[in-house]
Amino acid sequence: MADHISILNLIDISVIRQGRTILDHVDLELHKNEITTLIGPNGSGKTTLIRLILGLIKPSSGRLQWRDRPSVGYMPQKLHIEPTLPLTVERFLLMARGSKRNEIDRVLADTGISHLRDSPIQYISGGEFQRVLLSRAILRRPQLLVLDEPVQGVDISGQLELYQLITYIKEQYACTVLMVSHDLHMVMAKTDHVICLNQHICCQGSPQKVTHDPEFTALFGESYQEDIALYNHQHDHHHHLDGKVSDSSCSHSTTETQVKP
Asked: Residue 25 and residue 12: Cα distance in Å, rounded?
């Protein structure tokens, strides 16, 4: 359960580049131990906002106010690895600054991919590669975990498992999660707080509140109001950390069901 302690305030943030306003008077808070999801159309400023929080760029005006500067883990939207490199999952993780083998054991277990340790990274699946990137992001036990489109390139069942895994990691590491996503149907059931961005903050709050906001409807259409916040996945099988299931049958439902990754 989130405790609503603010770890970061963005106060009246604007970013202007080459005469174009990318972010316009943005105010938001990130709370300790919450999953906050940033949504919005292409070109809405989501990537710029992430870069501000990571300290990669500075605002044109406004300020960022940290409660205590946290350690940060970052999972990028895309990462190209030269296919000719003889790189295993373990060697890839060892390339992260300050990484140690005992820490790699821990994160591979936490993300359910210990069995991939010696696998060539070029031959693992899209979902497995996203888990490798998540493993890299949590190597240093971050207090703030920033995930940019973490389920990109993953099929529907794999997306659900990754969202469940992110919730598990948040609880296991007691960290704050800021996640960028276009996947409106599933992410709304897996987040505490939603921020809808389109240069400015159109609306924010709980998934139920945001999906009934007129500005959300104007951006994403009325059809989302009925199903987006309620979509979930009801299981009659058990997910193991290695990604395998005890029973392959399952059904989609609007019933909330707690399932470990």
From this structure: 4
pLDDT in tens, 217-253: 888 776 555 444 444 434 344 444 444 444 444 333 3
- Neighbouring CB atoms inside 10 A of 146's CB total 23
What is the Cβ-side half-sphere exposure of residue 206, based on CA atoms within 13 angstroms?
5
pLDDT at 102: 85
35-48+70-253: CATH topology: Rossmann fold (3.40.50)
Residues 6+ apart with CB under 8 A from 130: 75, 150, 151, 152, 153, 154, 158, 162
How many secondary structure helices (H) and strands (E) does the chain include? 9, 11
Q: Are 23 and 45 spatial neighbours (Cβ–Cβ below 8 Å)?
A: yes
Q: For residue 98, report the phi and psi dihedrals to the nearest 5 degrees.
A: 75, 10
Put simply, whether the predicted model's pTM sits higher than 0.90 gets the answer no
**What's the rounded Cα separation, in Å, for the pair 16 and 25?**
11
Task: Please name the helix (run of DSSP H) or strand (run of DSSP E) that holds residue 28, with its range, or none.
Answer: strand 20-31
Pull the structure tokens for residue 39: 């949504």
Q: Which amino acid is at 12?
A: D
Domain segments of the chain as ranges? 35-48+70-253
